[in-house]
Predict the structure.
Amino acid sequence: QLQLAESGGGLVQPGGSLRLSCAASGFTLDEFAVGWFRQVPGKEREGVACISRTGGTTTYANSVQGRFTVSRDNAKNTAYLQMINLKPEDTADYYCAAEYNLFCSAWPTRDDYDYWGQGTQVTVSS
């Protein structure tokens, strides 16, 4: 079965950190650029970060620049989103998506992604 699975979400206090993982199964993630998105109920899903197929190019939404870092380990078929200095407004369901491309051509839109994960919830609250 071809799928992405996110993990690592949870409840964290403001200023805290989390690392999300995005594991691919049934296909080789190193053939895909990987985007991270988040969604709050009632709002559109927004692009957070993206990493190219080789990891050489990354891009971020202004709202997370300097606080979030996207990375990947192609040997483990996994991508990551390290989040530090979390704020209550970062609370959302986080999703990863794989685009069959060298670069993040589709990001930050939600179009043209080949695979999506089911999401992991991140809650930032004291």
Summary: The radius of gyration is 13 Å.
